[in-house]
Design brief:
The chain has 11 helices and 12 strands. By secondary structure, it is α/β, with parallel strands linked by helices.
Length: 358
């Protein structure tokens, strides 16, 4: 088997990305217990899904585990862009099918399933309501109804911090149910995620599945899509292109940001150490900030001569969420702590995209 040299990686040429991956697998766990295990990552070509695939492959090569990772994808272009040379790894297998299509769904026989497939792109919300529902709900139904529970050790569903809606609260823990206005067109995404959670919990109790659900808030970092309409993507794109940052709101909304290596390590920590049936927020404590302050501070930190402008004519409907500040205490009880601060994280992200643009 071709092994990864942890000092000089043959699959990841970008130093920042490789450092992030090494950090994401650096936590206390008996990785040797994963010997010969199999994993399926749905949505493995996405931002989070691809990082999880890479991290699992890195774990495999660090500990010589002979694990099998199957990446289920739908868009070949996204797959090649996100995994690139990792597609040559002998322990990575790729399968292409639509998870919302019941007729073509295979039987799932593996030890670990991570369901991260979803359309988490605010720009794509409009006019894609059916696809969002199909991915979040039909996809979840098909995965659960086709899994082999005999060999399954953990089923992990990646939901979203948006399921809390607009609580306008400063300590949102996993026991809160949320408040979502169905009249807002963007509500299709969090409401379908919420229903997927309910179905997953119901079936896990019926089938006696070892289940965990994670609710990521704003995850950012190298490898993310700079054209998805999210504030952190727009901010980084503006700085890279030396353009003023354009906000389609007054910038007073408060958001919580978590760097990709911290988020990946958090998800893997829950996958291997999470308590059965528990739900975990994926968020960095003390990293909640007003959008306008984030933009001004990052611009200042980057020493760029740029301005933040307000445009009330948004090309797409804005999020109604004003101030949701999550609690990460349950996640921290597993031993997880964030290691990359807000400004360091944006600095690493901007440096990465500058390197990629050369």
């Amino acid at each position: 088997m071709k092994k990864i040299n942890l000092d000089h990686n043959g699959y990841e040429s970008n130093t920042i990305l490789f450092e992030d991956l090494l950090d994401s697998i650096n936590f206390e766990f008996d990785f040797k217990s994963l010997m010969n295990k199999s994993f399926i990552v749905f949505g493995g070509s996405g931002f989070l899904g691809s990082q999880l695939c890479k991290a699992l492959l890195l774990i495999n090569d660090k500990y010589d585990l002979n694990i099998k990772i199957t990446c289920v994808y739908q868009n070949k272009g996204h797959l090649e862009q996100s995994l690139y040379k990792w597609l040559q790894h002998p322990n990575l297998f790729v399968e292409n099918y639509n998870i919302s299509d019941k007729a073509s769904f295979p039987q799932l026989d593996c030890n670990y399933i991570i369901h991260s497939a979803s359309i988490a792109n605010p720009i794509a919300y409009k006019n894609n309501e059916e696809k969002i529902i199909e991915s979040n709900i039909d996809g979840t139904i098909n995965i659960i109804n086709n899994l082999d529970s005999d060999n399954l050790e953990k089923y992990l569903y990646i939901s979203s911090g948006e399921i809390y809606g607009n609580l306008n609260a400063s300590h949102i823990d996993e026991s809160l149910y949320g408040s979502i206005n169905p009249k807002n067109s963007r509500s299709i995404y969090p409401l379908s995620k919420k229903l997927a959670e309910a179905y997953t919990i119901l079936k896990s109790e019926l089938y006696k599945l070892n289940l965990n659900i994670v609710r990521p808030f704003h995850i950012y970092g190298p490898g993310m899509n700079l054209n998805d309409g999210k504030i952190h993507s727009d901010l980084i794109s503006s700085i890279i292109n030396k353009k003023n940052v354009e906000l389609f709101s007054n910038g007073q909304s408060i958001r919580n940001f978590c760097y990709i290596s911290d988020a990946t390590r958090a998800i893997l920590t829950v996958l291997f150490l999470g308590q059965p049936g528990e739900i975990y927020n994926i968020a960095s404590p003390n990293e909640s900030i007003k959008v306008i302050d984030l933009c001004k501070n990052i611009i200042k930190n980057q020493k760029e001569n740029l301005e933040v402008t307000i445009n009330n004519q948004s090309p797409h409907e804005q999020s109604p969420i004003l101030s949701n500040i999550p609690s990460s205490e349950r996640l921290q009880s597993l031993g997880w702590e964030p290691r990359i601060g807000l400004y360091d994280g944006f600095d690493r992200s901007i440096n990465y995209f500058r390197q990629e643009a050369k």
